[in-house]
Amino acid sequence: MANALLSLNVATRTVNSGSNAVTLLDKINLQVKEGEFISLMGPSGSGKSTLLNCIGMLDSFTGGGYTFLGEPVHSMKEKNRSKLYKEYIGFVFQAYHLIDELTVWENIETPLLYKNVKSSERKALVADMLDRFNIVGKKNLFPIQLSGGQQQLVGIARALIGKPKLILADEPTGNLNSKQSTEIMELFSQLNKEGVTIIQATHSEHNASYGSRIINLLDGRIVSE
Amino acid sequence: MIKNYFKIAWRNLLKKKGFTAINIIGLSLGIGCFIMISMFVIDEISYDRYHEKANRIYRINSDVIFGGTELSMAVTSDPMGEVLKNDYPEVENYVRFYASRGSKLIKKGSEYINEGAVAHADSTLFNVFTLPTILGDPKIALKDPNTVVITETAANRYFGSPQLAIGQFLETDDNGKTLYKVTSVIEDIPKNSHFNFDFFFSMANVEYDFGNYLSHNFHTYVLLKEGVDYKAFNKNFKAIINKYLLPQAAQFIEISSMDDFEASGNKLEYSLIPLTDIHLHSSRGIELSANGNIQYVYIFSAAALFILLIACVNFINLTTARSSSRAKEVGIRKVLGSEKKSLIGQFLTESTLIAILALFVGLLFVWLSLGWFNNVSGKEMLMTSLLSPKFLIFIVVLPFIVGGLAGAYPAFFLSSFQPIKVLKGKLSLGHKKNTLRNFLVIFQFATSIILIVGTIVIYKQLNHIQNSNLGFNKDQVVVVSNSGLSSETRQSLKNEIEQLTEVKSASFAGYLPVSSSSRSDTTFSTEAVMTESNGFNMQYWNIDYDYLETIGMEIKAGRNFSRDFGSDSTGIILNETAVKLAGFGDPIGKKLYTIDSDGDLEGYTIIGVVKNFNFASLRENVGGLCFQLGNNSWESAYRFNTTDISGLLSTIESKYKVAAPGMPFEYEFLDEAFDNMYRQERRVGTVAMAFAILAIIIACLGLFGLATYIAEQRTKEIGVRKVLGATVANIIKMLSKDFVKLVIIAFVIATPIAWWFMNKWLQEFAFRIDLTWGIFAVTGFVALVVALITLSFQAIKAAIANPVNSLRSE
Questions:
Q1: pTM for the structure as a whole
Q2: Domain parsing of chain A, residue ranges
């Protein structure tokens, strides 16, 4: 049996909007094992993105417990938290969020810079990644010169370069046409087979079907699994 | 990592060319201005430091008040140096300069050249000062009479080279003709020196009644021994006065003791001033050159610093205003694992890069405007002075300081964005409620307004000086030098030129009411026995019958000297202040007494009173003055009445050339000589104006950038408003209103500050303008109009844009 990667124990997130407290995530209980490919589904506003952000430690739960690789994230300091996600988590966004001023190569290289990886090693890793995604010819182009699908490929390559244990993808194909979508989903599926844990938020049943487990959210609550 | 920072910084700069240009232009103006003023300040404070013993050399200053007339002099009596050296072991040595005559005619071939940079010096010159010799032995150079030490420039001018000069003779017009042997050639005296002589003649050739404690004519420098405190040493002068001065003074004036002398409101004080303080802290009578002013060094430094800050403010405002365009990048980088401090590093790298670029552009500005600045400041600074090691370090460090100053706040501001917010587009970076930005805009405009007020006040004051009633008429008078001419020639030339139809009147004029002219003062008493209470000191000028008419002075009472009265040689004419000093109600016919050349008191009858006229600077009140008939003919003054001035001048010149072949023809217009008295104020005025213009340009650049950004941000809002029926005028008003408010607040803050500073500056003038509300109103109006014009470029562009376009783009 695979190890537990993370577990949420009645995790809650509430925010104050004016004088009302709004509950965005309500008593979420969730165990994620290494190697899983989970799809979060639900209508707009159901809390998919919030859950992803909280798991990715960009946001935090306001109540309950969150354990990542056995470490209690909820009681961690900001600095250790960022160390943790830097090490183990990669993000893929709907809007790709590449840095416009950097080339494909530089975009992919950036996370390595923040991990203080040596220059020669960086070169080798980025070159491998370009190779693997078949975008060697595009390495000196800027994001604006690429199609949406190509940009998302770069986005995924960038998320993978740090060898994360977990990839969090928020509507990764939301801005793509069906052909590009399929390519991306197949890539995810391939990555999952190689051992990367993936959690994606999606509207599409088809995309969700690539995953090993589907979680339905509604109004911040897990309604079915 | 740094490489990555630079790469992205560079690409960002290229991407936003408009903002980059505004930032770089603004910062480069600031940096350029700052470097230029630093050069100026470093030059000013470097004066006289080239002497190896500079920190032990002091000049003796004299301060005398006698009968209400105050004299602050850079000179002292001739025996003072020797007395100090003999009586006080703290004094290692001393040297005196005697430069009372101001200039000498020196013969070159068959022509005479009028040399102004001349002095007689003691043979101890080289023991005190560091003046490197090229040829000759400095130890004996000035020991003998008829010896002269000259600079390399002078050697080249008269002999072709230092080698050709040594051992040769220079002919001067001393006593008609005197030869001096060149015993040593020294390097040219550095520009940053308070004395700049080309010729040092032997002191032995000075014809002077040596041993006179009561006449102050020698610039005297003492070299104190290591570790002597000059302030403590100053206390010794009291003993010197009692021991040497009083016995000599008692021969002429009945002085019982120093205490009684002082009790009658008189003063006699000597003090030492450090050599290195002379340039910036001394502006006494009879300085060896026009000195600088520490106040202006402070003011210029402050202004340059403020202009640099204004430029930094532009960077801060523009960078934070357009932060939304960088927010996404910040968010992504944080998600990718960047820590806050590395983002701060990145943004600081960017601001530093901009500062480095601005430094190069700024150096270009310095290079382009250095000629102008030298002209204005009267300096001869070179770009190469920037290459000195100290300056080089300063220049290398400067962009990092500026980059940090300008970049620190934006860096913290930008790097503190939360990724989750910016990536979801939730971050609202509105244009409103940015207190810091408003504060900084106010700061920029307040500084600009203060500088503009300063400029206007300085110019108004200069104008006031030029047009105020001086008590004489400075216009249409040319003053011609008579040096080298016999007194018969002077007389005949004057008579001949007086006949010209263009010449209204002519007189000899050894003394003129401009500070570049000669001065002479002496002591008078109202009774035949001079005491410390009935004696007073005043100017004492020899003039001829036509002087008052030629210079345009007004007789208030009595009459002018007249050829019809044989007794006028014992008559005197006073100015109004002198009448007051003497305490006469009706002065005409009363007598004043003064010491004649035999040491006896002689009485003179007052025959007239002239209206007070400004013979010193307008900074001072008019002092007492007495005219006596005499034949002081060093210069002639001609009042003319013609528009063909060059024609008249060439006529006069040809007459001088015929009468005195080989002599230099030198002339000066009285009004120009008068204007020269205020050269420093004029310089300050010009520099202040440049500062004010720079400040307002930089502030407006920033305003322009902000307006551009805000108009861009509010495009959609403007579109909607226009669809709803807003007119172009409504839109312009909406976009300009907030900024206009800031400019008005800036004006309110700046007004009292500017008033305080300029009021203080004006206190230096005895004759000054009032600070009227009009000056401030004009300034406020100018600042507002300039700001409005700047804003309107963007506001109008945004307002007249077709709303369909802006709405469709959303």
A1: 0.81
A2: 4-224
- Topology given in CATH for the domain delimited by A4-224: Rossmann fold (3.40.50)
| Nearest residue to B699 (alpha-carbon basis) of B321, B311, B301 | B311
B1 contacts A113? CB cut-off 8 A: yes
CB pairs A-B closer than 8 Å: 52
Please say whether the beta carbons of A77 and A70 come within 8 A.
no
- Phi and psi at B200, nearest 5°, equal -115, 110
| CA dist., res. B560 & res. B506, Å (int) | 15
User: Which residues in chain B touch residue A98, judged by CB atoms under 8 angstroms apart?
Assistant: 332
Distance, CA of B36 to chain centre: 16
Q: What is the spatial distance between Cα B350 and Cα B344, in angstroms, rounded to a whole number?
A: 10
CA distances from B708 to B416, B655, B702, B736, B801 (A): 25, 69, 10, 11, 14
Q: Is A81 at the interface with chain B, CB within 8 A?
A: no
- Give me B436's structure tokens: 């810091």
How do residues B588-605 score in pLDDT, each as one tens digit?
A: 999 998 877 676 788 899
**Cβ pair A99:B332 closer than 8 A:** yes
Residue B174 per-residue DSSP state: G
Chain B's closest residue to A93, CA to CA, is B423
Contacts B15 to A, Cβ<8 Å: 101
User: Taking the CB of residue B139, how many other CB atoms lie within 10 A of it?
Assistant: 12
**Tens-digit pLDDT profile for residues B366-375:** 999 999 999 8
Separation of first and last alpha carbons in chain A: 20
Q: Which residues contact B685 (CB under 8 A, 6 or more apart)?
A: B455, B458, B459, B462
The partner residue sitting opposite B419, judged by closest CB among A58, A113, A114, is A58
